[in-house]
Each structure stands twice: as C-alpha cells, then as structure tokens.
What does this fold into?
Amino acid sequence: MRIVIIGAGKVGEELCRSLAIAGHDITLIEKDADRLEQLVNMTDIKGIVGNGSIYETQLEAGVDTCDIFIAVSPFDEINIIAAITAKQVGATHTIARVRDPDYSRQANFVKESLGITMMINPEMEAALDISRIIQFPSALGIERFGGGLVNIIEVVINNDSPLAGQHVKDFREKHMDVLICVISRNGDVIIPSGQTVIQAGDHIHVTGTSKELTKFYKAAGFYRQPLKSVFIVGAHRIAYYLIQRILPLKMRVKTIELDPEVAEAMAADFPEVEVVAGDGTDQQVLKEERMSHYDAVIALTGVDEENLLLSLYAKSEGVKKTVTKVNRTNLVKLLEAQPLDSIITPRRLIADIIIRFVRAMQNSEGSNVDALYRIADNKVEALQFTVRSDCKIAGIPLINLTLKNHVLIAAIMRNGHLIFPRGTDKIQTGDRVIVVTTHINFNDLDDVLADGQDFLEG
It folds into this structure.
C-alpha cells in the first residue's frame, strides 16, 4: 500500500520502521531536514522536506494517489488540516493524531463532516489501557480478542513461583484451559514447545478466558485481590481520561499534582476525587499523603525518570500494583531487573493502533487479519484470522500440518466457545483463530504453513 506520513517524532519513526518492513511504500514529510535524513537512512522510505498540511507539498509526496495518509506531527491543528487537505487531494483514508480533549469530544462530528477516517488521542488510549490493567491487577498487560472471549495476559515468574522449573507440557497437563504462547527471557522471545522449561525471571504470555485465567492466577501464585483504591501522580490529560473510567468502578481515588492551577481545575471537575497540590516525587510528601495505603500507584508525570523512580519507591513501600508511563522505552531496559509492574507507552500504543488499521485496510486486498497486537516488547505478533472456505488447512488435523518455526496456533473460537487446540483438533470454516508468531507480515491463516507443505489427510 502507498502510505504518506507527516511528522518524524517517535510515533512517526515507529510507523516508518514497522510499515516499511511490512513492505509498504512509505513517504515521510518532515520540516526538519536533519531528522528526515536520519529516518530515511534508518528505514527504506522516501522523504520530502516541508509542511505536510500544504497542498503543494502533499502533491509532491503523492498524496493524491496514496491509500492511507497519517498525520502525527506534534500539533493537533496541523494534523487536522493536513488530514482534511489530504482527503480533498485524493487520499483514500486519512488518520490524524489529536490530543486536545476539546477536539476529542467532537471527534465523530469532525470525522463525519470533514472526511477524516480516524482521529486518535494517545492520552485517551493510554487511559483505556491503564483502566484495563486496573481491572485485571494480576497481569502486567492484557490484550483482548474475539470481543473479550479470549485474553492474552503477561505475568512474571518469581523465584518462589511453583511454575519455575516446570516443562510447558507439564504446565498444560495441570492447566488444560490456558496456554503459554510466548516466553520473554533476557531480551529474547521464545515460542515454546512442550519441552521448553519455564525459568524464574521469565515473562510469560498466557491465553485463556477471564474465568480460567483467574483460576490460573490462584493456582500459580499470581492472584491479586481486586483493587479498591488508586493513587495517581500527575493530573494532566491521561489522568483526566483515566479518572472518568475508574470512578464508575467505585474506587477511592487520590491525585497529586505539582501545578496548583491544574490541581484546582481537576478538583472542580471531579469533586469525588481527593486532589492535592504538591510534589508527587517528594518522598516526604508521599508519606504525608499515605501513598503506601493505596492498592495501586499510577505514575503519570511528564518526566520518564521521575515516573520510574516513583514506581520503584512505591513497590519498596509495599504498594500492590504500579503502572508507569514511559515514553523512552530504552530506559525500561536499563531497569529490567527491578520489580516494576505495568509499563505504558502512549506513543507505542498509537503506532500499534495505526498499524492494526493498515492491516485491516489490507483485507480488501486479500489480507485476512481481523485483529493484531504486538506483544513482548513488539517482538511478537498475535493475530486473529477468520477461516475462509478456501483455507488450505481447514479440515486437517493439526498434527498433520508442518508449520513454520516460531509459530503457535494459540486458540480457536467456534460458535462462542474457546478451544485450546491439540494435535487431533481441526480448524473449520468460520472459526476465528489466534496465531502467535515472531514472523511479521502474515496476512492469511495459510501463511503459518512451512514452505513446501504436503498435506496428509487425517
């Protein structure tokens, strides 16, 4: 597909890299010539120096014939104007990153009246992700497929975990209705076989229904009681969206904010929330505000280092759950040995949403991907396919299929039921199938087959 992107920030960089690797024809528009040259040299893309909202610049970039136009500059107004212009110029689909809550509140009107296909708010998406984590406190992260029927959750294996030292096949015998689909270990990812041994320190991604995962948490020593109170440091946009979502859960919420005007505005908007004007990175202030008496601490300041240190301090004080906003993920890798819980990166969330949209648009060109999530530090893709009548592997026992290396058929959804397949199971037309793989660019379920696969009828 032909894709034009404006904005060479972190989101633009992630999009250029991922979409170029996926084989798309990418043109990047950026005012900063040095930054543009850096990304052109890093990735297989074309670049144009200029203002992406200007008609002439868009024509030079080929927007009139592009399939998707993506505006992710730092400025909402430029992104909106650029997307409107691109639609008029001839772009088939247009996407604009918009952060201002006032614009977000009228997103439907803007999309319908001005022809923008998608408006994405990174802070709102981050708040949605955090609210899911709060509702599933036993997991570090969670992705949902099939309308919530199946979940892929991430947990870490502690030294005293009963799973440490177990073979995956033995785990499966004890937990029939959940499946380990990915193991992250020392920076590497493993699509496990039955002989893979689970080790202390592993981050494992497990799939199952909410009910069965709760049983798994309890049996494996991961279970945490539902959270009843939340302590938020930083009262800007993410906190604003998040509080709207967690107040209906009847949680006790306290927010601390350094800027007195911002704190006053939040207190006026949310009278149910205790809002404190103070320095949420000062340990003495945190002690005075009894941070350690809250079930969860969510670090949402504008400084990554402050958020990381705050979460580490909260864990040292015995807080059950921490959620940390980090934009520069290289900082997280420096602290991999530390007891951090969930990490939220708004820029990566937005990139993932846009990449899912691009895959969805490929459906009309032969792609069969219903949903896509990138997990394990973006090294693994979890994809949902709908099985068509011409699917090569339908009706054949899985044991008779030769799959590519590093591929796992994790789950089958059939008529509202979830199946964790074994060798004798067969995929049927109409099924929805979850595939987990380190490969990229799978567009069809048959892509799981090894080259030269010969079918053995079962």
